[in-house]
Fold these 2 entries.
Entry 1:
Amino acid sequence: MKLYTYLNYGGNCRQAFEFYVEHLGGKITSLATHGELPESNVPPDWKNAILHARMELGETMLLGADIPPDRFQPMRSAYLTLMVDSIDEAERIYTLLTEGGQVFMPMEETFFAHRFAMLRDRFGTSWMLLHQRAAP
């Protein structure tokens, strides 16, 4: 059994996945638009919207799609948790993901981590960033 995360976007799935490829090292393994559906009655302004995308991000598979903007809401009460190997990497990713986003907990040192932060990026995805301390 495998558990994957499926993210909905309000029309910017392609931009989000391309951002994650460029800045987080992801690899898009499939991407299909609504306009590519056979015998599609999709409105012209929805033909380029993502029907299904699949990305390898670290050791995880991330799936996504666009949904109508009037039904889209940013993630609530769930976070993608990104474990990083260094303070520098935590700071770099924090800077990228917070640009145009919303910070819930600023990047800081905690009793359990060298760096920890909680935020929502400009695409509506909520993240926890963690460079944890070694177990005693």
Note: The chain has a mean pLDDT of 93.
Entry 2:
Amino acid sequence: MLRVIFDTNIYGLLIKEKDANELEERITNDKEFIVYGYKPIRTEIRNIPKVTKLSKKTRVILLGLYDKITGNHFLKHSIKITNLAKKYYDYYRHLGGIYGWDTSIRVDFMIVACASYYGLDLVYSSDNKTLLGKHPLKAYRHINFKENLRTPNFLKYKDLLEKLRNLI
């Protein structure tokens, strides 16, 4: 069984697909592919601005998709995860990383820290600058090695679509 977590951006990309409902169904029905929820991801979705009717509707759709995909598979946040994410960040900055902690990189590092802490197999993301960037990937591997944690594998959104569309 593959235990995975989606970066927040995956949910937004999924709802844009023409076959979004079918993809959602394939994710939720695949017993060998469990997607876990994590509070910082849901919070990012919930914090989508409610400025227009369109953004309110998108927010509601995304929250519904998130809840259906993650079901009752939820990973608890802890101070240990926050501390691990901060270690990633410190090493990332040491490597020359440019993003500040209070940007979206904080949640990205928390997602990877959560996946590492709970021993998940995969993290899916389409974020090539922060979550999947060269410096962050080095930071995850370096810190996880020091902390004796297994670094999850990282796949892109296109890999997820290929997997889902090839299910029979």
Note: The chain has one domain: 2-165.
